[in-house]
Write a structure and sequence with these properties.
Layout (H helix, E strand, L loop, with lengths): L4 H15 L8 E3 L3 H12 L5 E6 L3 H9 L3 E8 L2 E2 L10 E4 L13 H14 L2 E5 L20 E5 L2 E5 L2
Helix pairs in contact: 2-3
Length: about 160
């Protein structure tokens, strides 16, 4: 991985400036694509039977990764108004979201909802897995900052940032 140090350092600087994501270059993992990142995250962050809060409707590739890892999926409902943060039946070990442009609904998570999500995850000591697949594609305004915290993963196509202090 040392040969990619300059690239990881550049990604770190870019995401720090554009999204407020702060991590060490060593915390940036390069994969063969988003699906590889989801598969690895599901295996690394959950054990079979662990509850995972997944967007419903949501990205089927991420859902398949967590199902393959044996996670127990709980629906995090999303509609045209945004995310429904009614408490799940069990405390999740991980929460999978696409807040910049929810797949497939296309809504953007408000800052109030982002803060609510981080507070709930902190309370449960749960990982937030943020699929940041298109935050830079905007018709107006700038991208919302990420919601960095001590247990947060940002996936960006072929790499992911594991932020844990």
């Amino acid at each position: 991985m040392e040969k990619f140090r300059h690239w990881r350092t550049a990604r770190r600087a870019r995401h720090g400036a554009s999204r407020g994501v702060h991590c060490l270059p060593e915390q940036i993992i390069i994969t063969n694509g988003a699906q590889s990142a989801f598969d690895l995250l599901a295996l690394l962050l959950t054990d079979p039977g662990d509850p995972v809060w997944m967007e419903e409707p949501g990205y089927y590739g991420a859902r398949a990764a967590f199902m393959s890892a044996g996670a127990k999926l709980m629906p995090l409902r999303v509609d045209a108004k945004g995310w429904n943060f009614d408490l799940p039946k069990a405390q999740p070990k991980a929460i999978f979201v696409t807040p910049s442009c929810q797949h497939p609904m296309g809504v953007t998570m408000s800052m109030e909802q982002r803060i609510n999500l981080v507070q709930m995850a902190d309370k449960w000591n749960a990982w937030i897995i943020e699929d940041d697949y298109d935050s830079e594609y905007r018709f107006q305004g700038s991208a919302h900052p990420g919601a960095p915290r001590h247990r947060h993963c940002f996936t960006r196509g072929f790499c992911w940032h594991l932020c844990q202090n």
